[in-house]
Design a protein that fits this description.
This protein is 43% helix and 20% strand. By secondary structure, the chain is an alpha/beta fold. The protein has a single domain (2-153, 211-259), classed as Spore Coat Polysaccharide Biosynthesis Protein SpsA, Chain A (Alpha-Beta Complex), CATH 3.90.550. It has a 6-stranded mixed beta sheet with strand order 3-2-1-4-9-6, sandwiched between helices. Strand 10, helix 11 and strand 11 form a beta-alpha-beta unit.
């Protein structure tokens, strides 16, 4: 079995300056791994394929229904769709690399060897006077054990279709089944918010086989917000990659680190 596939969701033809940097850096640093562009038929993705051809990446394109690329909510539907993971079942792991990520180094094999089911940047709570880690972790830059995700979804697929559906009649029809189930289980608590909360928080509490790192360890894999705090907690261990780096509060910190790779950020 091959170790890992890099999946890059693409939902628009013309990326902005930050997204161009993210994509270019990703396919350069991760060039030893097969890359799959996850998109929908009819979208012009020539900008991305030209870079992949230039860089001589091993890449393919996999199309899913356009519905999944309409909004954050519908993207969450895709991420809890068992067929998404079955598409890549010839691999042991997949890396989600959204186009607001930046990767500094390829430590993927190291993280695969740690045998976690799911790894993403930890979420940090800032109450104004103090900060603390809350959960692991963000899905935009995340490494996932494919079989473990399939096992979870096989056990919970019907309820998830309700929780993440954009179809009001379907949500209403299955609401009471969800209510009964959620009262008995940690699996579905707050699941309707985001798929990464479902996998990172709920699944790790519900299934013994579904393992995640501690927030401190996760911060050496990825950081999303509050970089200063994360680095102070993990002995100044810079992560493999970051998510949402272009946000103003993050760019202040990461600009100099990204520009070291030759990118000019205006």
């Amino acid at each position: 079995m091959n170790n890992c596939v890099i999946t890059i969701p693409i939902y628009k033809s013309s990326p902005n300056t930050y997204e161009k940097i993210s994509f270019t850096q990703g396919v350069k640093v991760l060039s030893k791994w097969p890359i799959v562009i996850v998109t929908y038929e009819g979208l012009d993705i020539s900008f991305y394929t030209e870079i992949l051809e230039e860089n001589k990446n091993d890449y393919t394109i996999h199309y899913f229904d356009q519905h999944y690329f309409n909004s954050v909510h519908t993207y969450n539907e895709l991420m809890v769709n068992i067929d998404f993971y079955k598409t890549f079942q010839q691999y042991s792991h997949l890396l989600i690399y959204q186009t607001d990520c930046f990767i500094f180094k390829d430590d993927i094999q190291y993280w695969i060897d740690q045998s976690y089911s799911y790894i993403g940047a930890p979420w940090v709570v800032n109450n104004g006077t103090s900060q603390h880690f809350q959960y692991v972790g963000n899905g935009g830059f995340s490494l996932r054990n494919i079989n473990d995700h399939i096992k979870v979804l096989q056990k919970s697929n019907n309820v998830l279709k309700c929780l993440f559906s954009t179809n009001p009649p379907l949500r209403l029809k299955t609401f009471f089944a969800y209510f009964r189930t959620s009262r008995k289980s940690t699996l579905y608590q707050d699941s309707y918010k985001n798929e990464d909360m479902f996998f990172g928080k709920n699944c790790s509490k519900t299934f013994k086989f579904f393992t995640i790192p501690t927030p401190v360890i996760a911060s050496t894999f990825g950081i999303e917000y509050h970089a200063d705090y994360c680095l102070s907690e993990n002995n100044n261990h810079y992560p493999m990659g970051i998510h949402a780096w272009e946000k103003p509060e993050n760019l202040i910190f990461w600009r100099k680190h990204i520009e070291k790779f030759g990118y000019q950020i205006d």
